[in-house]
Amino acid sequence: MRRSVGLKVIALILVTAAAGVHVVEMDKKNYIADVSATQEEEKTTESSVLQEVESAEAKPTITEDGVLGEVFEPEEEPADDPVEIVMIGDVLMHDRVIDSGLQENGSYDYSALFAHVKDKVLGADLAMVDQETILGGTELGVSGYPVFNAPQEVGIAEAEAGFDVVLHANNHALDKGLEGIANTINFWESKYPWVGYVGINKNAEHQNALLYIEKNGIKFAVLNYTYGTNRNEDIEGSHYFVNFMDKELVERQLDEAEQNADFTIVCPHWGSEYNLSIDAEQEKWTGIFFKHGADLVIGAHPHVIEPVKMVSDGEKKMLVYYSLGNFVSATSESGDTITNRMVGGMADVTVGRDEAGNAVIQNYDVLPLVCHLGEKEVTAYFLSDYTEELAASNKILSQDPGFSLEKCQNLVKKIWEK
After folding, report:
1. Cα–Cα distances in Å, from 289 out to 84, 85, 265?
2. What residues are paired with 127 via a beta bridge?
3. Assigned superfamily of 83-416
4. Lowest mean pLDDT among 61-75, 140-154, 171-185, 266-280
5. 37, exposed or middle or buried, with CB in 10 Å at 0-12, 13-18, 19+?
6. How far apart are CA 133 and CA 150, in angstroms?
7. Global pTM value
8. Residues 5-32: tens digit of each pLDDT
9. In 245-305, where does DSSP find H-type helix?
């Protein structure tokens, strides 16, 4: 399937030839180091490499620095090494977040969004991000709330920060219609084919091609669904282009993943906005996910953090992060609960094999985050790195005068340290 990604090493160049699809692997850290010089140099190099790859009759070769040349053979990883999985919540491109990346020459650069979590992301074996807004690009008109469309430079920043999987099933997936979805898919497939995207599709066949990722001898399935979209009633076939939480679809794909993967991750866009607790729909879907073999559930959409629970029937276990909240956002609303929207989290899960050879969760944690609004810059810090001085300079104070480091810490204690 086109959605099978080998992540010993995550960077993949896919070459379509008469013999089929060839995959060349290289270490993602080496690749990130190579492409992070300047965006213009990246575009030039990327274009020339893709042209050479497309015209090659044999398997292309890649050097350790990520350019065509002699073969770089990465060292084999022990098959029994555990796999560290991390994920962050909503990258919500409000107007202020969009403007934070605008450069003097009119281009965009969003590397600052991920600057303080990049090392952790690069150090993980499998890193995922919930891209709340479509990456339709400037061609469709960049816009914030309520009809979102983000510059594709957001995706560039995510790829260069080291994210391996980008989630796109959310209520804003159809904000720019099918053109927005097409532009987003074309962006990932043409610019970063080694990054797995889920939740949006070209057609029914594409929807049924599940994303499988193999790491350290463990095969993962990653599934992504949304409760609905803000616009879909006037788009024919929209149920194919976006993965909705349709019971038949979810159960069928979970059953397939159970047959083909060692470990299944489900990322639902669910829950009630700004609700710090679990709602009835989340409880219902938790039961469905558990019954059909999911091992890890990481949720998004409420824009605030929600509890983390281990579900078990005495034999099987399933870990659920009900909501990681926002990673970055910049609401225009005001009030004493706005702080809740500034606190998010990074799921951190270690998966390995037990004595029976089953892929199981060995350790898990949640690392609290704080979205910081500077004079122009928007970024996120780990709460453990956030200071009183930073909190006092966060521009969200103009909307929630009670915002403080202590208030953020107390929220985390309330939800995650019970």
Report:
1. 22, 19, 10
2. 86
3. Metallo-dependent phosphatases (3.60.21.10)
4. 61-75
5. exposed
6. 6
7. 0.84
8. 554 333 333 333 333 332 323 345 454 5
9. 247-260, 280-291
